[in-house]
Recover the amino acids of this structure.
């Protein structure tokens, strides 16, 4: 089963605007994470939210988690051109032997225009 | 300081010629992952190790094998690369702690099959 569908697939905004990306998943989870990927590079961890948390902040990032809807959102406030990247959510399924399996969603490509 | 190192960054191999990609880590993490990422797609989990326990994804082709001789090193072997195996291959590590699976990624190896 696939975890982590994301929308929108692509988002283009002006510098200074806020960007919101959404992620949905199918199974129960231990936690949900968001990662950033610059073109042609590896992924970088941004923020983790546990299944018993509803909201978390880190600098200009705000993540929400609704386990009843199996969805999460990532908000980037006051965007900058340097925020241009692809953003992925990732989940680890609850109820397994917790082998550390981590599955990524399809990602949102964000372009922030100067 | 690089913590997850993948070599080489770029690899060109001939159709059908076995190729090995390598990954090393200085984090002493017990979990190591191999992901395949094609253009504009999400990273797709091929397999991962939890300590010495190997976890293969059901849809990972038999053409892909992996070895983890010790905690620090992990290899991805592609026995007979096809044109469809051209992709970015990402290695990642994590340390399972309190149910958290924050992953650290290498810069990836971009594989070209000619």
């Amino acid at each position: 089963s696939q975890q982590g569908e994301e929308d929108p697939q692509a988002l283009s905004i002006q510098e200074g605007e806020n960007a919101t990306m959404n992620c949905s998943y199918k199974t129960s989870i231990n936690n949900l994470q968001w990662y950033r990927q610059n073109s042609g590079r590896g992924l970088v961890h941004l923020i983790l939210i546990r299944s018993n948390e509803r909201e978390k902040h880190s600098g200009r990032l705000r993540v929400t988690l609704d386990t009843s809807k199996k969805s999460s959102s990532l908000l980037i406030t006051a965007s900058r051109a340097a925020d241009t990247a692809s953003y992925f959510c990732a989940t680890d399924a609850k109820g397994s032997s917790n082998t550390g399996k981590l599955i990524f969603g399809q990602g949102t490509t964000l372009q922030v225009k100067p | 300081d690089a913590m997850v190192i993948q070599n080489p960054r770029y690899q060109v191999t001939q159709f059908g010629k076995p190729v090995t990609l390598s990954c090393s880590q200085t984090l002493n993490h017990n979990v190591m992952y191999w992901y395949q990422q094609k253009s504009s797609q999400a990273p797709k989990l091929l397999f991962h190790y939890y300590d010495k326990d190997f976890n293969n994804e059901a849809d990972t082709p038999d053409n892909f094998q992996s070895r983890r001789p010790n905690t620090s090193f992990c290899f991805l072997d592609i026995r007979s690369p096809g044109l469809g195996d051209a992709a970015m291959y990402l290695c990642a590590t994590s340390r399972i702690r309190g149910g958290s699976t924050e992953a650290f990624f290498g810069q990836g190896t971009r594989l070209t099959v000619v």
